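Cast an eye over this sequence plus tokens and walk me through the fold:

***
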Amino acid sequence: MAATKSKTKITFRPLGDNVLIRRDEADDRTDAGIFLPESSKDKPKSGVVEAVGEGRVNTDTGERIPLTVKKGDRVIFTSYAGSEVKLEDEELLIMGESEILAIFD
């Protein structure tokens, strides 16, 4: 009997003040309707928060400082923010909360 690979769901929890973000999809055409090749698409600088860490530890008191962002928030981040990670064939970003510039309301 041959062994089969079972696909298990990976759980991922960032540490400290790190945040896991699913980047928005890149536009596939210009405003004028011209289709863009994959090589010329700009990576979006916005996305949705998928998971957050527990927060940074205050070195004076030992208490956790909670994060401002929470799961489900739509955010804007800097151009070169974070590190790309691949989880279950999906590319996500992990970055510090300080690299997030704004939250969409």
Remarks:
- Residues 18-27+35-103 form a domain with the 10 Kd Chaperonin, Protein Cpn10; Chain O fold (CATH 2.30.33.40).
- The CA atoms of residues 21 and 62 lie 27 Å apart.
